[in-house]
## 1
Amino acid sequence: MAKRTLVETVINNEPVELLCEPRQSLLEVLRDELHMTGTKEGCLTGDCGACTILVDGRPVCSCLMLGVEAQGHKLETIEGLATGAELHPLQRKFLEHASLQCGICTPGFLMSAKALLDKIPRPTEAEVRYHLAGNLCRCTGYDKIVRAVLDAARESG
């Protein structure tokens, strides 16, 4: 077993200290060490976006980032999107627009959409499609997802 490294970070506004191996991806740390299984494993090559989380507000494929690189950063995962039992507007709109089926891609889409709306509160359809281009869905197609994000923007703005 490799020597474990202490990492101090903030995840979903909570300070976290964890020990991880230097070779572990952030995705592995989240799922296997912290038992935060909302972030999904898809391709492990950064191509599908299923494992997208926010690092200092920017969408990042957690399969491409090492856990030790989280040191000193603020992370947001799908587990932190809702406030208690109250769904985030994006989550509500994904349900209302039937924008999900199997659910593997949904957390990544939601986190990418949150990053977009935090940056551009009233995006155009073209901006939504551009910012979600790194997330792949094999079940629903993209129109319902785009409509849900635009509807959430209208509701929030």
Note: Helices lie at 26-33, 89-96, 106-119, 125-131, 143-156.
## 2
Amino acid sequence: MARRLSNEHFDHIYLSDLSRAYRTGERILKFHPDVPVTVTRTLREIAHDHFIPDSQNKSGSEPAIRKERDRIDEFAAHLCRSHEFGSRILVVAHGNLIRVLLPVLAGYNPQASVMIELENTSVTVLETWPSKRSILRLANCVSHLRRSEISL
């Protein structure tokens, strides 16, 4: 992942403080030593079933699920407030959180959106516009991984 992103330009990098994403972020940062970085608890993983409509096996209470959604909404709002449109922001986080963050950033309800499969260390690119419209430019790209590193 770090080699794949080594020639990309980023205006800011956000990392989850949980070890797997954080370690991935540390490797990426070696290629981007001058880019501002924020390590945050806000990007911690969420339960996989919390934002699936009609899930029969929700693993958390409604207040816990609401707290997760509030955290994601807060991060999305922070991105919009803190960065100009056209900024290139890298978010190194966890699949379930990203799965919910993408529609939130695009202005959609995650429960009414298409679910995307996201492999560990996959690359997903969302371009957002001032009009609140978005284009999903790339989703779950794992071309930098060997086949044996991809779960099927």
Note: The chain has one domain: 2-149.
